[in-house]
């Protein structure tokens, strides 16, 4: 079995044979490694491209700019709107397929402007066996090239390569696009995306690193990584989160005591995980991405809700 070093050398030699490549680039670890390899192999003939839309948090675009500077690769932005597609807005089970199709389509349009024939993405060898990932269908249909997958580079090996390139995102958690916080069947709107992004900004400002704010049509469900969950019980944070999120338009603000879980609003009967976790640009194997996912389905088997209506449930009191 080839070593990580041998796989890296093969991927670099592979890309060096191309006239030029455009890397679908989110600033996550997968697409950053592809960008670093491409820049190493092709120099100025490699370009990183981030697709900017309503579902990309502004902080993630800032990270992408910073990581591109670390690598030294030319960085461009392709703008588009997923909200232009009613198939995406209705937020069905295939939302990620429609998103990925539009996102990669924007990448290919930008590549054509730059006279580049090949678009690379960050799908790695683990992604193809990671459950229901409709976004991968778009990769195949549009014929994007996945060098990590082609050379059997796993997620763990991606992080090892990132460390070898001294990339600051080597240990970065996957980040899903904002639409993954909205349950399947609930329309994706600019208003919902905006309040989710602003709500998560509060968590980021408090120093949390692994989190999501799920938007259950007016109920905010905050998920915090297990290692950080105890900090979320701090009274000062509770007051700040409640007040800020209420100001943003959420009617109820809750903390999920299970903590952060990828695919936490996915059907229990499906193998679906967070197809958005690596889905953003090259991470959508995308997100994380998340990409991506995805994190998006709210219904369980036979349409039963996975999240119980806690406001209509009778609980025992201390006198019972």
TrEMBL record:
Extract the CDD domains matched here: LarE-like
InterPro entries for this protein: Asn_synthase, LarE, Ni-pincer_cofactor_biosynth, Rossmann-like_a/b/a_fold
SUPFAM superfamilies assigned = Adenine nucleotide alpha hydrolases-like
Q: Does the keyword Transferase apply?
A: yes
Identify a single GO molecular function assigned to this protein: sulfurtransferase activity
Q: Supply the alphabetized keyword list.
A: Transferase
Q: Which domain of life is it from?
A: Archaea
Q: Does the keyword Transferase apply?
A: yes
Signal peptide (from-to): none
Locate the compositionally biased regions of type Basic and acidic residues: 269-292
Q: Where is this region: Disordered?
A: 260-320
Domain Asparagine synthetase, which positions?
Answer: 9-169
Q: GO:BP terms for this protein?
A: asparagine biosynthetic process
PANTHER family attached to this UniProt entry: EXSB FAMILY PROTEIN, NAD_GMP SYNTHASE DOMAIN-CONTAINING PROTEIN
Report the protein name in the record.
tRNA(5-methylaminomethyl-2-thiouridylate)-methyl transferase
Per the UniProt entry, what species is this protein from, by scientific name? Haladaptatus paucihalophilus DX253
């Amino acid at each position: 079995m080839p070593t990580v070093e041998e796989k890296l050398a093969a991927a670099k030699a592979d890309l060096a044979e191309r006239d030029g490549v455009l890397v679908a680039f989110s600033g996550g670890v997968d697409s950053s490694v592809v960008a670093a390899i491409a820049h190493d192999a092709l120099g100025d003939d490699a370009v990183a491209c981030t697709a900017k839309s309503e579902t990309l948090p502004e902080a993630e675009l800032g990270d992408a700019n910073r990581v591109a500077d670390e690598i030294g690769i030319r960085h461009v932005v392709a703008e588009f709107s997923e909200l232009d597609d009613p198939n995406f807005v209705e937020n069905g089970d295939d939302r990620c397929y429609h998103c990925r199709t539009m996102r990669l389509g924007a990448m290919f349009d930008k590549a054509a402007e730059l006279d580049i024939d090949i678009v690379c993405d960050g799908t790695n060898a683990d992604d193809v066996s990671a459950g229901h990932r409709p976004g991968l269908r778009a990769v195949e249909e549009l014929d994007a090239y996945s060098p990590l997958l082609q050379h059997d580079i796993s997620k763990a090996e991606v992080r090892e390569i990132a460390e070898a390139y001294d990339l600051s995102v080597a240990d970065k958690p996957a980040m899903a696009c904002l639409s993954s916080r909205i349950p399947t069947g609930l329309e994706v709107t600019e208003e919902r995306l905006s309040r989710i992004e602003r709500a998560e900004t509060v968590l980021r400002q408090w120093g949390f690193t692994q989190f999501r704010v799920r938007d259950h049509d007016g109920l905010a469900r905050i998920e915090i990584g297990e290692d950080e969950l105890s900090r979320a019980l701090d009274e000062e944070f509770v007051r700040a989160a409640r007040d800020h999120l209420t100001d943003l338009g959420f009617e109820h603000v809750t903390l999920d005591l299970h903590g952060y879980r990828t695919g936490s609003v996915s059907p229990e009967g499906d193998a679906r995980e967070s197809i958005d976790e690596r889905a953003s640009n090259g991470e959508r194997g995308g997100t994380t991405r998340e990409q991506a996912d995805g994190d998006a389905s709210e219904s369980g088997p036979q349409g039963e809700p996975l999240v119980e209506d806690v406001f209509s449930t009778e609980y025992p009191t201390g006198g019972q």
